[in-house]
Inverse folding.
């Protein structure tokens, strides 16, 4: 079963000589119950792919689906409802509401939708993210890693079909980033969710079940059972960038 997919996806920006083809005929599916990472050099179209697959942006041509629902057939209100009810989001900048405490931030999407939280599910999430003793704290009283764990719990609170995570460890130190990646992995393998993550970091991608590679707006490779070293080697083949540019001190260090 496929949680999300795009078919012959084309996305262009600008006109005339300034026209940029960010996606160039991409067809790719993201399996349900799996953790998929999207990688590629800067400008490869990876964030554009995620935004279009998640209904945050519209395709110039082609189709995007959540389950069997084609996003292009939905009006604005229907699309808003679909994103609210079937999709979770985790962003690099956390996007927590500073005036709300942890418990209120976690249930915020459900509260906005007028939905009653499944208390057992939410309590289980709070236990999984390890923030039971921080529920009455506000974001400013938390570390960056704790804030991102709140954001992951918020994304999962409504039991979405798929969670899209855009560079979720980009603002975190390596230890906090590792905690968030393990949490996303647990959401997939222990809680049955689906996660699609955009990242530039081979270490982060190594936590996924599969990595999808883009280059110049096209799908160029898929890697099952990735490791940080295998991903780094594949990325270096794209542009010859040094190890440190992808978050690793050296190829030897990545392998250790």
């Amino acid at each position: 079963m496929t949680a999300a997919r795009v078919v012959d996806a084309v996305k262009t920006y600008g006109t005339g000589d300034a026209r940029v083809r960010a996606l160039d005929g991409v067809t790719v599916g993201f399996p349900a119950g799996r953790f998929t990472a999207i990688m590629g050099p800067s400008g490869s179209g990876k964030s554009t792919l995620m935004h279009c697959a998640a209904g945050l942006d519209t395709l110039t041509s082609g189709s995007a689906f959540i389950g069997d629902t084609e996003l292009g057939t939905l009006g604005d209100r229907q699309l808003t409802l679909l994103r609210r009810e079937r999709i979770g989001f985790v962003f690099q900048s956390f996007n927590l509401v500073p005036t709300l405490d942890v418990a209120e931030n976690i249930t915020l999407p459900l509260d906005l939708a007028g939905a009653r939280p499944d208390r057992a599910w939410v309590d289980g999430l709070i236990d999984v993210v390890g923030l039971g003793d921080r529920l009455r704290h506000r974001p400013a009283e938390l570390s960056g890693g704790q804030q991102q764990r709140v954001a992951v719990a918020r994304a999962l609170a409504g039991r979405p079909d798929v969670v899209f995570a855009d560079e979720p460890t980009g603002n975190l130190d390596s230890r906090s980033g590792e905690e968030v990646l393990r949490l996303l992995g647990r959401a997939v393998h222990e809680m049955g969710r689906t996660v699609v993550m955009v990242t530039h970091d081979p270490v982060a991608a190594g936590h996924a079940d599969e990595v999808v590679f883009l280059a110049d707006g096209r799908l160029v490779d898929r890697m099952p059972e990735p490791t940080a070293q295998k991903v780094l080697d594949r990325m270096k083949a794209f542009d010859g960038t040094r190890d440190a540019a992808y978050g690793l001190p050296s190829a030897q260090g990545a392998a250790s």
Observations:
- The longest helix spans residues 174-189.
- The first strand starts at residue 2 and ends at 13.
